[in-house]
Amino acid sequence: MQHPEKGLRTEERRREDGLAPGAALGFAVGDFGLNLYWQGLGLFLVYFHTDVLGVPAAWAGMAFLLASVWDGISDPLLGLVADRSRTRWGRYRPFLLFGSVPLALAFVLAFSAPRLPQPALFGYALATQLLVRTLYNTLAIPYATLSAAMTRDSAMRTTLSGLRMQCAFAGGIAVAWLMPALAQELAPTLGRAAYASAAAIVGILATATLLWCFAAVREPDDEDRGSTETRLRPLPEIRAFLHAVGGNAPLLRLLAARFAMAFAQTMHIRNTMYFLKYVLGDTGLAPYALPLFAALSLLSVPLWVRLIRRGGKRAVWQYACLLSLVCALALHLPAALQPACAVALLGAFAVGTTGHGVCFWAMLPDTVEYSEWRFGRRDEAKVFGVASLTQKLAMGLSAFAAGVLLDGAGFVANQAQNVGAVEAIRASLGLIPALGMAMSMLLMRGYGLDQAEHRRILDALAARRAGAHGHGWTSD
Questions:
Q1: According to DSSP H, which parts of 338-430 are helical?
Q2: Domain extent for 40
C-alpha cells in the first residue's frame, strides 16, 4: 500500500479527537440496554423455543438461521437508510429515540408462549424473532456507527470500545441473572407466561438506558465530518459502496476473522444452557453461572484495553483467540465434567471472547477512514451494517448446525440425554469452537491497519480537506 505524504495534525483533527463531558459514558450506556436484548436472545431464545414453547431443536435452529439470513439482508439496507438520514438530531441518534419502545414490545412477544399446534409454533417462533431482530438492528446499527462519527482518534476509539464493552457486559450480567431468576420466580403463578413477564421488565430497563444514550450523545455537523459521500440514488450508491468494500483489504480481512470467531462463540454460547442442564445435571446453576461469566468479562475489559495500547489490536486479537481456544479444548476433557472446573473454563472462555469484542469494535471504525482515503467514501453506517451481516450469518449458521447436530444425536428436551446427545453438546461447547478460534487466528495474520498506519491516513485526509477541497478525490 502506498502511503500518502505525512501531514501535521490540524486544529480540526484535535477538535475531532475530543468528546464532550458525559458523551463517552452516555454512548457506552446505550450498549447496556442493547445487550439486555442481545444477550437475552442469545442465551435464552433457542432454549425457550425448545424447552418452553416446544419447538424441536432442529426447527428452533432453522428459525434462528432464517432470522439471521434476514439480518444479513436488512443490516446493510438499514445502514444505507441511516447514512442517508438527515434530522435536527443528527443521522443516527433519532433511531434510539423512536425505536426503543417498539423494540421492548417485540422482545416481550418473542418470549411469549401461546398454545398452538406444532407447525404454528414454528411459525410463531420465526415471525416474532424476525420482528425483534429487525427492530433491534434498527437501533443497533446506528448506535454502533456513532463510534465512527463521534471521534476519529484511534486511541479514543479504543477507550470508547472499552467503556462500551464494560456496559455491554454489565447488561449481560443483568439479563443473565434477571431472565432465569424472574422466570423461575414467576413460573408457579404465571406458568408459560413467566418468560414474557421477565422480558417486559428487561424491556423497561433497556428503554430507559437507550433514551439516556440519545440525550447524552451529540453528532458533529455533516459539514465537519469530512465525508465526501455523494447523495446518489440508492442503486448507484449501493454499487459504489460495494466497489469500495471490495477494495478495502483491512475490512475484508477483519470481517473474515470476525465470522470465524462469531461462529465459534455462538456455537459455545447456544449450548451453555444445555451443558449446565443436561451434562452437569444442575438446573439451578444457570442463574449464578451466567452472570458470573458476564462479570468476569466486564472485569477483564480494562486489562484488554491496556494490552491493546501496549501491544496493538492485532496482537491482542491473537492472544484472545488463543485463550478461548485452550479453554474450549479443555472443556472436552473428563475433568470438565466437574462443576467447579467447568465453570472456571467457561468463565475463562468468556474472558477471551471479551478481548475479541474490544478489538473488533475499536478496529472497525478505522476501516471507515481507510475507505475514505482510498475511495472518498466514509459509508459509516453501511460498513457497520456489513459487519453486522457477517456476524449474524455466522450466528445463524452456528445455531442451525448446533440444532441439526443435537437432533441427529437423539436430543429430546426435558429428558435425560443419551450418550450421543451428551457428546454432541460437549463437542458444540468445546471442539467446534476451538476450530473456529484457530481459523480466526489464521485469518487475522497479515492485518496491516495498525495505529501508526491509521494515523498516517488521518493526516492525509486532513491535508486533503485543508488544501485540496473542491478539487475532487482520487484513489491512491
A1: 339-375, 380-408, 419-429
A2: 11-467
